[in-house]
Structures are given as structure tokens and as C-alpha cells.
Amino acid sequence: MSIHTAAVIGGGSFGTVVANILADNNIATVQWMRNEEVAASINNQHENPVYLPGVSLNPALRASTDLLAAVQDAEAIFVSVPSQSVREVVAAIAPHLRADQALISTTKGIEPEGFLLMSQVIREICPHNPIGVLSGPNLAKEIGRRELAATVIASEDSDLRRNVQQALSCTYFRVYASNDLYGVELSGALKNIYAIVSGFVAALGMGENTKSMIITRSLAEMSRFAVALGANPLTFLGLAGVGDLVVTCMSPLSRNYRVGYAIGQGKSLDEAITELGEVAEGVNTLRYVRAKAQELSIYMPLVMGAYEVLFNGADPRRVAEGLMTGDHTSDVEFALPRCEI
Ligand SMILES: NC(=O)C1=CN([C@@H]2O[C@H](COP(=O)(O)OP(=O)(O)OC[C@H]3O[C@@H](n4cnc5c(N)ncnc54)[C@H](OP(=O)(O)O)[C@@H]3O)[C@@H](O)[C@H]2O)C=CC1
Ligand SMILES: O=C(CO)COP(=O)(O)O
């Protein structure tokens, strides 16, 4: 059975592009947001002037500030609010959902209590609904301009995977499938940390070799962390891993990269966040991952260095330089284990 009706929860840039793709694919879509002016603008001017200015949205897309009405008839519900708000909004709709309504998270963050990813939060609240995660190299502003992009739908439920592939695939968006929900979701959260580090490196005018070293060692570090938590490292070779890491570490369209860039220019974390005015999940993710790495004794020099810069005022140059002074170690530790060099 394919998807004919959908809801998107969240009025930010990514919620808006997901809703717009669904509308472009002739799926009756309601996008829920709390800002009435933005909802009116989407309905009347077909534009989200706050989060996606200048992008013409499909006129068939409906926006609503009534959460329960928005999800009532939706066969698929895409959850696209920042991680701090996912529990709150999903708890508000949960008592009203039918068990056949699928919930798909697009949120790339972690809940600190229990170190839960968003699909785990949703599963706790809605244990009987089909659950999936959408994650990949998907800068909202490019997709809004209908530039070509691809993503991953991860779920243990093959019907959900096929339905979401069909619902979101179009001339400018391609959806690949994965059954590694945890790996896909974890990589989407972790790469935001390394986008911040890449922002430091760019702002400091460091070389192209340095940038490549940072991205590649970021992949080594995030896979090491993921394996320690039981994820499949092969998932990190796909779009949700390498793909998303590369785009967010290289593009000024990434908000996490922009936070790192501002700090690399000498601004404080507070100044960088205020100037951004949008969510940069990597700042909180960095705190939670650093605590987890310390708890489990996982070697993560980039995470430790970035934490010192953001929260203890260390010099951002020291993060890349720190890689030059560690113990001699292995390139790909799944091929040559660190203990065998
Ligand atoms: N933008 C991107 O390129 C991509 C983003 N993502 C992920 O998607 C998630 C959402 O990001 P994005 O759309 O970019 O965020 P934005 O910063 O663009 O917008 C956040 C949206 O969430 C709303 N919101 C925040 N808190 C609440 C709440 N408690 N209740 C209701 N609405 C709330 C805001 O509403 P208000 O304006 O009223 O404050 C705003 O509409 C993040 O986890 C991000 O990592 C994933 C892929 C790509
Ligand atoms: O996840 C993203 C692209 O895939 C968006 O990254 P930012 O949240 O850093 O903008």
C-alpha cells in the first residue's frame, strides 16, 4: 500500500522541504508548525519566509497550527523538529494515533537521558507504530531549489521503506533503503560535531590536505564510537555516513559548520549561536558524545578537542594540531586493529 496522505511536524527548513517534495509527488500533505504567520504565508504566498525565503513551494501544500488535525488523516508522519522538542510533540499526538500510522524521524540529535536517538524516543512513546529514520546529505536550502540530492530511509519494516521511497522519490530527490536504523541515525547525529571542527579549520585558513585529514579521521572516529555502541561500521560508508559527513564538513550552508567557522574567527559560542538563528544540533551532541566516550573509554581526540574549544575557551587551532601528536596508529582500524600496529 502506498502513501496518499502525509503530515510533517515542524515548520523549519527541513520540514518545509520534505513537505514540499511530498506535495510535488501529489501526496495530500499538511505541515504543522506553531507560528501562525508562517503557516498563513505557506498557505497564501506558498513560501516559508523565515526558514526558506525565496523558495516557491507547491501550492497544494497546506500548513496548519492545529497539531491533531494535521496528523489525523496522515498515513505517514514525518517528525522534523529539533531533538529537544521531539519527545514533547510526539507525546502530544501519541494518544490520538492509530497503530498503522508510520512515524519517520528526520531529526539528527540525541536525547541525553539514556543517550537515546530520536527513533528510540519515538518508539518509547509509540511502541506499536511502524518507525523509520530519514537521513543523508540533505542541505535543506539546496533541496528547496530542487537541486539533485539523495537520502536514506532506514527501518526494520520493509513496507515502510518501500512506501517512503515511493513517496519521496522524484526528479530531484532519490531515496536509498537501509535496515540499519541505529547506524543511519547515529551517523546523522555524529557528523554535526565534525562539521563544527571543519568550520574551525576553514576559518583558520588551514590547507586542503588538513581539511581532508579532518574529514577522514572524523569518519574513523565516528565509526569507532558507533562500533563501541553496537552499530555496523559498513553503514558509515553510505550516504548517511560519508555522504552527510562530507557535505556538512564542506558547505557553509551547514549550520554546524557555520558555528565552527564563527568560533574559528574568534567569536564566542553564544555569539555564534545567536548569529545563526537556526538549530545547530552538533553543539549539544558534542556534550553528550564526549560524556559517553569518557564513560566507555573510547578514543575520540577530535571530540575531546572540540569540547575544550566550545566549552572551555581553548584555541581552535589546537584541535587539528592535536592529531599530529597522538600515538602512532592505524589508518583503517577495521582492517588493521589499533592494538596490532
Ligand atoms: N536544515 C537541514 O538542512 C536539515 C536538517 N535536519 C534536521 O532536521 C531537524 C530540524 O531542523 P531544521 O528544520 O533545519 O530546523 P530549523 O532551525 O530550520 O527550524 C526549527 C523548527 O522547529 C520548530 N520548533 C522548535 N521547537 C519546537 C517545539 N517545541 N514545538 C514546535 N515546533 C518547534 C521551530 O519553530 P519556531 O520557528 O516557532 O521556533 C522551527 O519551525 C534538526 O534535527 C536537523 O538536524 C536534517 C536534514 C537536513
Ligand atoms: O544535516 C544536514 C545536511 O544533511 C544539515 O546540516 P546542518 O544542521 O549543519 O545545517
How would you describe the overall organization of this protein?
The strands form two sheets. The protein has an eight-stranded mixed sheet with strand order 3-2-1-4-5-8-9-10, sandwiched between helices. It has 15 helices and ten strands. A hairpin with a 4-residue loop joins strand 6 (110-111) and strand 7. Helix 4 (83-93) packs parallel to helix 5 and helix 8 (181-203) runs parallel beside helix 10. The protein is an alpha/beta fold and 341 residues long. Bound molecules: NADPH dihydro-nicotinamide-adenine-dinucleotide phosphate and 1,3-dihydroxyacetonephosphate (13P).
Low-confidence stretches: none
Q: What is the count of DSSP helices, taking H or I runs of 4+ residues?
A: 15
Gyration radius from CA atoms, angstroms: 20 Å
Order of helices and strands: EHEHEHEHEEEHEHEHEHHHHHHHH
Report the major sheet: 8 strands, mixed
Strand content bin: 5-15%
How would you classify the helix and strand content by structural class?
alpha/beta
Molecular shape: globular
User: If you average the pLDDT, what whole number results?
Assistant: 97
Bound molecules: NADPH dihydro-nicotinamide-adenine-dinucleotide phosphate, 1,3-dihydroxyacetonephosphate
